Description:
36% helix
Amino acid sequence: MSTSASAPLxxxxxxxxxxxxxxxxxxxxxxxxCSSAGDDPLGGKxxxxxxxxxxxxxxxxxGGTVVVGSANFPENVLLGSIYSQALKAKGVKVEEKFNIxxxxxxxxxxxxxxxxxxxxxNGSLLAYLGGKPADPGTTAVNAELAKSLPEPLAILExxxxxxxxxxxxxxxxxxxxxxxxxxxxxxxxxxLTIGGPPEFKSRQEQPxxxxxxxxxxxxxxxxxxxxxxxxxxxxxxxxxxxxxxxIAQLKLVPLTDPKNLFAAQNVTPLVxxxxxxxxxxxxxxxxxxxxxxxxxxxxxxxxxxxxxDPSAVAKEWLKSNGLS
Length: 324
């Protein structure tokens, strides 16, 4: 996957994507939100989740200050700012504590109540807790989280936005081979070279054969240069994170994953349910309902490529979606 300045709780310092891959088993530590290291965003953009894990309104003090935290990479700071400003727009008192660190630090702070809300990634969070879903889709991942999260923690509704592994190609390759999904690579992979971080082959070569029947001509270790390698033709297929701004910058085409090879990584609010009332819960769920992967990718381009202020980008997005 291609690296960007915005790794979600998953890159070198906060690896999360690694965990999201094969079996949601291992948590990778990295430090940026669109990294080519195949990691977990918080580790040290589908349908909404079913019901929140536990009732977040019962027992929550109305009118109390909600403390919104974030990990120490740009995408998570942006998401934290979106949550914070959405809450303020509903009259909720908010304190911001951004750029704190990795999941190992953040999780305990939400559990203790030092933080009230944290932008999380459901697949990586489940991997961190050691849970294994019945299948890699959003519904199954959140159902397993419901069993795995201890009191007083809960997740609210997941957004369709996911920061996860993709197989991406250039527009030229997509047009030449008629590629829209990973399944379209069947019968064509033998002509193509695939690139990604060093560990990508060992983790995904067999699953790609088992799930999609794909055997590539060659595997190359392209690391942080994966997106560029796809663009310049050094490889025809690359493992790039779905919210890596280079996807938009280089006009790459992420292939859909109809068989869910890569596990769900939906942006999902993790809350201490004793710290959020019905008003706060409603504001956060409203954000999830509007946030999708394409939108998050566009926001990250503004932050990571155009160098716009995350708070200003968040404010603009909330206004355009009727949430401010």
